[in-house]
Amino acid sequence: MTNPWLAIPLTDYEGHMASPAVGQAEMLANEFEALLKSYAPKAVALVGCAGGNGFDKAAEAGVTRLVGIDINAGYIADAKNRYADTIPGLELHCADIQGDMPDLQAVELVYAALVFEYVDVPVALRNISRLCRSNGLLAVLLQLPKQGADAVTPSSFASLKELSFIMRLVPPGDLVHSAEAAGFASLSQKTITLQSGKQFSLQLFRLTSSCPQDAEAISAARGHDPT
After folding, report:
1. How far apart are alpha carbons 105 and 107 in whole angstroms?
2. 118-135 pLDDT tens trace
3. 3-class SS letters over the chain
4. Architecture of the CATH domain 4-223
5. How far, in Å, are 93, 118, 131, 145, 146 from residue 168 at the CA level?
6. How far apart are the C-alpha atoms of 131 and 125, rounded to whole Å?
7. Tens of pLDDT along 193-222?
8. Cα–Cα dist 70/61, whole Å
9. Are 92 and 80 in contact, with CB atoms under 8 Å apart?
10. Which terminal residue of the chain has fewer beta carbons within 10 Å of its beta carbon, N or C?
11. In Å, how far from its chain's centre is CA 7?
12. Per residue in 154-190, pLDDT tens?
């Protein structure tokens, strides 16, 4: 089955997220801006960056290295066309956070908003732990269930309906458990409620140790080191 994210036009995605019934685009950018103001990181990564929602917030906050990652090559191309000439230190990568990732220099803050609903959570967290500096921050925004409401809010953008076949809401407690297994410590959680009544959980973590799998690999390598 082809990942529906590869077939959704950016105009559809952005139109859906900005539509009054959904109202999520502004919220995602505002939460990102608040994190930048609170922690003042200089190197930041946005996982699932799409066309660059929030990139302008990073530029205004003085971020000197901004890494955008998305599975859709078209989204990355559009983000490049929009921002490559205006945001110094911008790096854009077409990659699947639950697959083979490029070898990237680690950052101080990773922002992953509405990403974990579509990926293998433990695998994605292991990859993110390699993208995050020691003592760096990971901010995750999860959608919470709402009784009687569709997980994917209906809108005039029909292509978004395909996401309902792969979207799986992640309980915040499950995310904490998986994050701890990947070397992250939970710092805080807050609930965000939109006018539509939909709620979201913003969870903040700090990377405190290597992922166990990475630690085992390092230990094994040292065991075979003739020095």
Report:
1. 7
2. 999 999 999 999 999 999
3. CCCHHHCCCHHHHHHHHHCCCCCCHHHHHHHHHHHHHHHCCCEEEEECCCCCCCHHHHHHCCCCEEEEEECCHHHHHHHHHHHCCCCCCEEEEECCCCCCCCCCCCEEEEEEECCHHHCCHHHHHHHHHHHEEEEEEEEEEEECCCCCCCCCCCCCCHHHHHHHHCCCCCCHHHHHHHHHHCCEEEEEEEEEECCCCCEEEEEEEEECCCCHHHHHHHHHHHHCCCC
4. 3-Layer(aba) Sandwich (3.40)
5. 25, 6, 24, 10, 13
6. 10
7. 998 889 999 999 999 986 555 444 433 433
8. 22
9. yes
10. C
11. 19
12. 888 989 888 988 899 999 999 999 999 999 999 999 9
Q: Are 93 and 69 contacting, i.e. CB atoms less than 8 angstroms apart? A: yes
Question: What is the residue-averaged pLDDT of the chain?
Answer: 91
Residue spans of the domains in the chain: they are 4-223
